[in-house]
Specification:
It is a single chain. The chain has a single domain, classed as 3-Layer(aba) Sandwich (Hut operon positive regulatory protein HutP). It has helices at residues 17-25, 30-42, 56-73, 81-97; strands at residues 46-55, 107-117, 120-130, 137-146. Strands 1-2-3-4 form a 4-stranded antiparallel beta sheet, with helices on both faces. The chain is an alpha+beta fold. 39% of the residues lie in helices and 29% in strands. The protein has 4 helices and 4 strands, in the order ααβααβββ.
């Protein structure tokens, strides 16, 4: 694990759950992701990171399946309709910002961070999107929900 000098960005216990989710989604390596996930766990957050990629018409279902599966497998949420409902709504809200519903066919490669604290859940999505390989650029989305 790296020290604070190599990963200088910090989040405190008083920061919002949204900031924690976005920080995790923006990590550039597994080592950095692990560093922040461990730090956030010590601060009382429960975190999981997953991903999804593909064409927009297939991606909607992939994103929901990936987030729900990762959260159930990591025990971030229980098999409870209230928690699953909040997770799906936060995921849908995050998808609005990444412009998954534009009229042209796009490809995506996304990192998804899900964070829970108390009865709040946040989903941050960050990655690449392109209509054509020459138009590749970054996108980010965020959703939060109470359960």
């Amino acid at each position: 694990m790296k020290n604070d000098k190599q990963f200088p960005y910090s989040v405190t216990e008083n920061d919002c759950i949204e900031k924690v989710a976005v920080t995790l989604a923006l990590t550039g390596s597994r080592e950095e992701e692990e560093y922040y996930r461990n730090m956030f766990t010590e601060q009382g957050y429960t975190c999981v990171v997953t991903g999804a990629s593909g064409m927009d018409y297939d991606l909607r279902k992939k994103i929901v399946n990936s987030t729900v599966g990762a959260c159930l497998n990591s025990k971030l949420i229980e098999k409870d309709s209230k928690q699953a409902h909040a997770l799906v709504h936060a995921t849908v809200e995050a998808c609005y910002s990444i412009k998954i519903d534009v009229s042209l066919c796009q490809s995506f490669q996304l990192k998804i961070a899900i964070v829970k604290k108390d009865d709040w859940i946040a989903v941050a999505i960050f990655g690449d999107m392109a209509i054509h390989m020459l138009t590749n650029h970054k996108t980010i989305g965020l959703g939060i929900m109470h359960f």
